[in-house]
Amino acid sequence: LVSVLSSGIIVYRLPWTWKCSKFLIKLIHAGLNTIAMIFAIVALVAVFDYHNAMNIPNMYSLHSWIGLAAVIFYSLQVFLGFAIFLLPFAPVTVRAAFRPIHIYSGLTIFATVIATSLMGITQKLIFSLKNPAYSASPAEATFVNCLGVLLLTFGILILWMVSKPQWKRPPEVNAKVLQPFGATPEGRKGESTLTDGSNGVKSDLKVNSEAARKQNLKLDEAGQRSTM
């Protein structure tokens, strides 16, 4: 779940995706988040079924509270993302207003998922390790604690990648995608080039006409001398 969710977050930040159209990246982003949401819902149902089968109380720990809240808000995030950004019904003003909320809530949910995973790891170790106990630091505890540290490091790296301005999708790529068919984002440059070219032609014609006028004056002067 964490790997799929992180892939959906950084798909806009990968340099080799900048050459792709923004709509294609949106589809990949939406697809990865949909897969992660399905995984989360299936895992949540499996946990409740297991607790009911083993006569374990449901929703008694902080891990379960935050985990359920993360799944609910993440599902809402995915549905709103589809409705506002992917379907062509929402006005541009609504998309612009909801975009920072969408980004901030997505990063907050990702951080919440990391925290929930760490709490779940600790809770499982406390309840599972009896002889030797978790406090005795057996090999299983050390191994799982190392996995928790790696998970935390992974989450920090993802958030760091998202916060780097250098890794942001270049605006000129977006501008190129939004251009009408047959237009180029360098239209102004092309226009200036054409203007410079026409000015150059005009200047060349002016020089040629000036040279022709001087040549005619020389011929007239030569004719006058010959007549005299």
Automatic annotation (TrEMBL):
<feature type="transmembrane region" description="Helical">
    <location>
        <begin position="23"/>
        <end position="45"/>
    </location>
</feature>
<keyword id="KW-0249">Electron transport</keyword>
<protein>
    <recommendedName>
        <fullName>Plasma membrane ascorbate-dependent reductase CYBRD1</fullName>
        <ecNumber>7.2.1.3</ecNumber>
    </recommendedName>
</protein>
<keyword id="KW-0560">Oxidoreductase</keyword>
<feature type="region of interest" description="Disordered">
    <location>
        <begin position="178"/>
        <end position="228"/>
    </location>
</feature>
<keyword id="KW-0408">Iron</keyword>
<dbReference type="GO" id="GO:0046872">
    <property type="term" value="F:metal ion binding"/>
</dbReference>
<keyword id="KW-1278">Translocase</keyword>
<keyword id="KW-0349">Heme</keyword>
<keyword id="KW-0479">Metal-binding</keyword>
<feature type="transmembrane region" description="Helical">
    <location>
        <begin position="65"/>
        <end position="89"/>
    </location>
</feature>
<feature type="domain" description="Cytochrome b561">
    <location>
        <begin position="1"/>
        <end position="163"/>
    </location>
</feature>
<keyword id="KW-0813">Transport</keyword>
<keyword id="KW-1003">Cell membrane</keyword>
<dbReference type="GO" id="GO:0005765">
    <property type="term" value="C:lysosomal membrane"/>
</dbReference>
<dbReference type="InterPro" id="IPR043205">
    <property type="entry name" value="CYB561/CYBRD1-like"/>
</dbReference>
<keyword id="KW-1133">Transmembrane helix</keyword>
<comment type="subunit">
    <text>Homodimer.</text>
</comment>
<dbReference type="GO" id="GO:0016324">
    <property type="term" value="C:apical plasma membrane"/>
</dbReference>
<dbReference type="GO" id="GO:0140571">
    <property type="term" value="F:transmembrane ascorbate ferrireductase activity"/>
</dbReference>
<feature type="transmembrane region" description="Helical">
    <location>
        <begin position="141"/>
        <end position="162"/>
    </location>
</feature>
<keyword id="KW-0812">Transmembrane</keyword>
<dbReference type="Pfam" id="PF03188">
    <property type="entry name" value="Cytochrom_B561"/>
</dbReference>
<feature type="transmembrane region" description="Helical">
    <location>
        <begin position="101"/>
        <end position="121"/>
    </location>
</feature>
<keyword id="KW-0472">Membrane</keyword>
<dbReference type="InterPro" id="IPR006593">
    <property type="entry name" value="Cyt_b561/ferric_Rdtase_TM"/>
</dbReference>
<feature type="compositionally biased region" description="Basic and acidic residues">
    <location>
        <begin position="203"/>
        <end position="228"/>
    </location>
</feature>
<feature type="compositionally biased region" description="Polar residues">
    <location>
        <begin position="192"/>
        <end position="201"/>
    </location>
</feature>
